[in-house]
Fold this sequence. Notes:
With 1108 residues, the protein is an alpha/beta fold. Helices cover 52% and strands 8% of the residues.
Amino acid sequence: MEILKPASSDYSIYGIPCLFFPFVSNFCTFFLPGDGVARESSPFINSAEMDRGNMYEGKNMALFEEEMDSNPMVSSLLNKLANYTNLTQGVVEHEADEDSKRKEVKVPRMGTFIGVYLPCLQNILGVILFLRLTWIVGTAGVLESFIIVFMCCACTMLTAISMSAIATNGVVPAGGSYYMISRSLGPEFGGAVGLCFYLGTTFAGAMYILGTIEILLTYISPSAAIFKAEEVGEETEAMLNNMRVYGTCIIILMAIVVFVGVKYVNKLALVFLACVILSIIAIYAGVIKTAFDPPDFPICLLGNRTLSKRSFDVCAKFTESNNETKTTTLWRLFCDSSLLNATCDDYFSLNNVTEIQGIPGIMSGVLADNLWSAYSEKGSIVEKKDQPSVAGSEDTKMGGLPYVFTDIMTYFTMLVGIYFPSVTGIMAGSNRSGDLKDAQKSIPTGTILAISTTSFIYLSCIVLFGACIEGVILRDKFGEAVDGNLVVGTLAWPSPWVIVIGSFFSTCGAGLQSLTGAPRLLQAIARDGIVPFLQVFGHGKANGEPTWALLLTAGICEIGILIASLDSVAPILSMFFLMCYMFVNLACAVQTLLRTPNWRPRFKYYHWTLSFLGMSLCLALMFICSWYYALIAMLIAGCIYKYIEYRGAEKEWGDGIRGLSLNAARYALLRVEDGPPHTKNWRPQLLVLLNLDSEQLVKHPRLLSFTSQLKAGKGLTIVGSVLQGIYLDKCTEAQKAEENVKALMGVEKTKGFCQIVVSPHFRDGISYLIQSAGLGGMKHNTVLMAWPQSWKQTENRFSWKNFVDTVRETTAAQQALLVAKNIDLFPTNQERFTEGNIDVWWIVHDGGMLMLLPFLLRQHKVWRKCKMRIFTVAQMDDNSIQMKKDLQMFLYHLRLNAEVEVVEMTIFILNMIICFLLQTGGFFLSLVTFLSQIQSITDESRGSIRRKSFSSPQSIGQDAQALLTNDYREEEVAQLIHDRNTASHSAPAIKASVAAAVPEKVQMTWTKEKFVAEKHKNKDSNVSGFKDIFNMKPNQSNVRRMHTAVKLNGVVLNKSQHAQLVLLNMPGPPKNRKGDENYMEFLEVLTEGLDRVLLVRGSGREVITIYS
Length: 1108
């Protein structure tokens, strides 16, 4: 890199040439670059700073020196990325470990052909091609078989396109499909589908082992069977028992081989692949040979029924030898003796024995006979359609006769489930992504080319089998009509043994590879830590070999072996593979539709419609194969998903489901009206204001307990708090506070969001939260806070001024306010109230929130057994009995169960209470006025309308004020002193007098004589306090309010002192800010003596309705 130099040949200091500074010429000599003189360290410059400067010297990066620790230079970053290597699936490093030679891992050099194409080819072509494809063609016919194969191949091709897009969107480490799905759809989907893919791979190993045993015992060495059929009809059960015994032995042997060394399995992989390719070449060579020289495989038919040639050798009823007619072995199988006059089976007597060629050749025209399906019931005889036949007696027993029987009932959907495993294995390339020279180029090319090749092989084989082989041979699953030969082997050239030996080693190798790959997939899932109980399977030998995972895989594989039927195991693994492929398509579709900035695949030939089509096809094939297996597989995946969601580790992989959730949330927020919801949809959306201590811990955890009891996880909950200071200084503390609050929310099971605000002033931070918390239509409508117990301490940051201002701001924002007093006495989520009451004191109607809150609380198990009681007050001229009936009717229409009690008070006291609440509230309705409106509704429904005229709230307030002005003008000074002394609690005598004033005997009328006596009585102890009081001007409003608070408190104590919770209308603060401290005193007196109090101040709009 060329060093930037000044335009002038002389160097300069701050733009001025050095020659103008002769006294600093030494500086220029020693420190400015380009002079060719070695630099010297200065004693005045810190050596560390010199070293740091030398580090960036000549790199023109002095401007970014302070950021180099966290942000590296681009050159070093590119150097690291260029040298990035990814470890392999687990073969190369394990071999190096076993050989105790920890050499440097070489850069992968495998190309598309060796690394992707051939492994996919080997995994796709397998046991179903050799053992079941001919039987599928004979049973379903060429046309329906073509449809089956085309559907399955189309499914894998669409999945390969989606997989190619995902695999080329960044580096795919070991883990293959599990890694792709989990990083695209999140840990829940990734874990669920990864385990399904693991189970599919494990059951595939069981299927390959069963195929190996079937080839061994049926076609290579039938005499090796341990269990033999002693009676007719026990052949199938004996074969299944042989499968179980041999399968268990082979699993143990294969597990030992895999445990001893994976390198041996991988070295044999090329041999197994060669067997597959040679077998397929032999099939095509045999097809070509049939055109001019068909092989001789005669089939013996009795009428139109196919006979099994395992029991006889001559296809005739009798033979002529030396002019003597002799019966054959076939005669003796159908007749009771070898004599010509013996009694024989009716069908045998009525029909002739004929012999036809099993493989007439490609030019024979047999394709027309094999076009259509020939499904049959279990135990039916394989028959040739166009062969003449005479029906015998229906009472004839078929058991013991040498017919070829079908072993299972056949139908289209069952054949799909059996065939689909033959197209699996498309993930082999992506699983080897670490071994590839250029994975993003090789995986799409090799996988799609391998699927195209195998699809061509399968589709061409269907047509060729149907054109070359007789239908009864195709439907003969185990080749009994051709002397127990493998049916596809009869077509092969030069010998059937080429196919038999090739398929044997092919299935054996596929089983070994399944037992090698499945444990590593389980180990990758376990090491991710998303499924806690699987973490033990992440451990293994010292070199990382998954020993425990191998044992579990062998155990699950043994379950498939115990099933023992290849046709029963195949649909099981079809379900798991189809589910895996479905989610690969879903991952690609989601990422494409979301258009996330990180979605930039190098493979461009994809579209979300193709992914969606592939996903739909996978889902359809699942239910086509077996609807009950599909439901079971989906249930297993769903249980794993919910388990990971509930107990799994928190992983943030930038997955598409999170992006989908964000898009859905954005869409929903845009749809939600930015305004108040309808009354029927209203529920308290809480902003919970917490107070933190110096350690950033929550002071009142019970407030979150009460929140979870009130919300029960429904609606919006925002938990907020304020730190006082500057954000740049407090950002670390804010993060710590947020972590603490979130941890407590988890403990208290409070579902919601946390928001910590740093503000220079505590009050401003609260204001910011009230104004800005929430987003769009998802904003809070209710503020929940704790009563400031230490509000009299001026040094406390949550002083009474902050509290009163918060009350005013919630009113201005048209939000409801809930204030929990004595919050530390509220129950935790673990407590249960077995009895008690929730008492509601309904003084003014502010939207019905007082009614709604007890109903919501009683939904929680803490408050479920508490009864709801509603108290209201009546004037002397009110009909309290009718008022109670109206209120009961109103609660009936609200569908609320509650006891109702009307407390009668004198009109004088009631007017004081109404005045007390109305003067502070401003917008509230009188309860009497509100009940008159409700009464009109209920009366109208009963057919009788009662109308009463009431004075307006303003007139009531004015009357009360006038009355109080006339009666209390003389006592107001004495009362004010009483107020102030009660508030400060500084005079013990005054305390005693207030405490002695029981609710029923409170005497609030003070005379001047009492005032003078009280003054002299406490003169010595309260000199400073009384000096302030004497200097104050009496306030008539404060006298009335304190009077009201004391009287109302007495009434509440009388009725609700032992209630579990008391809900009260909360009066608003005075409009004149000078009375804020008195307002706090009023609230203290109002709630005195109550254990748990919830002061409720509604927003003034209806929140509960009688309508549906």
